[in-house]
Amino acid sequence: MKKEIKASDVAIMKELQGHLPMVKNPFAAIAEKLGIAEDEVINKTREYGEKKYYRRFGATLRHHKAGFTANGMGIWSVPKEEERAPMGELLSNRPEVSHAYERPSFPDWPYHLFTMIHGESEEEVLKIAKGMSEETGITEYDVLFSTREFKKSSMRYFDAWPLPDNEQ
User: Fold this and answer.
1) Architecture of domain 70-145
2) N or C: which end of the chain has fewer CB within 10 A?
3) What digits encode the pLDDT tens for the residues 34-51?
4) Is 63 strand, coil or helix?
């Protein structure tokens, strides 16, 4: 893949991976910064999506600023492997859930599915988890609450990717 991505692509991707400019036409602002046409930025963004360079392109809700101050990691035991995907889909479709993952279990850790549940209080998150349990029939679960946040930023892949300028 690295050979098909040119330095001009890296420049565009560097801009897209961070926060978009908070202006009426963010792609025009990116284009101006890079010295290219707005249509090129838009077309390249579409092309990257078609090539599956990214899974999704969207806004990030800063849940604390929006009033959702309690975050609980719902941990769910689903012993039957064939039930995990359908249960994961059910759990992840809840509007209060922002992340859902399947992870391996261990003899002393029987949990397979993990969901990040957001609410206005720990009590609300626990109530949401209980409702999720009732909806799915998963009775072995728990909710772990964060005590401290160490990092809140997305990965940045193209900040230091060394491509010579002549590979455009």
Assistant:
1) 2-Layer Sandwich (3.30)
2) N
3) 999 999 999 999 999 998
4) coil
| Burial of 103 from C-beta contacts in 10 A (0-12 / 13-18 / 19+) | exposed
Question: Above 70 in pLDDT, residue 57?
Answer: yes
Question: Amino acid identity, residue 100?
Answer: A
**Which of helix, strand or coil describes residue 128?**
helix
Q: Which residues contact 84 (CB under 8 A, 6 or more apart)?
A: 78, 102, 112, 113
Q: Is residue 145 a contact partner of residue 72, using CB atoms and an 8 Å limit?
A: yes
Q: How many percent of the chain have pLDDT more than 90? A: 58
What is the Cα–Cα distance from 45 to 43, expressed in whole angstroms? 5
Question: Which residue in 9, 39, 13 sits closest to 25, CA to CA?
Answer: 39
Contacts of 71 (CB under 8 A, 6+ apart): 63, 116, 117, 118, 125, 145, 146
Range of lowest pLDDT (90-94, 122-126, 147-151) = 147-151
| Residue 121 structure tokens | 């209080």
* pTM recorded for the entire structure: 0.63
- Taking residue 91's Cβ as centre, other Cβ atoms within 10 Å add up to 24
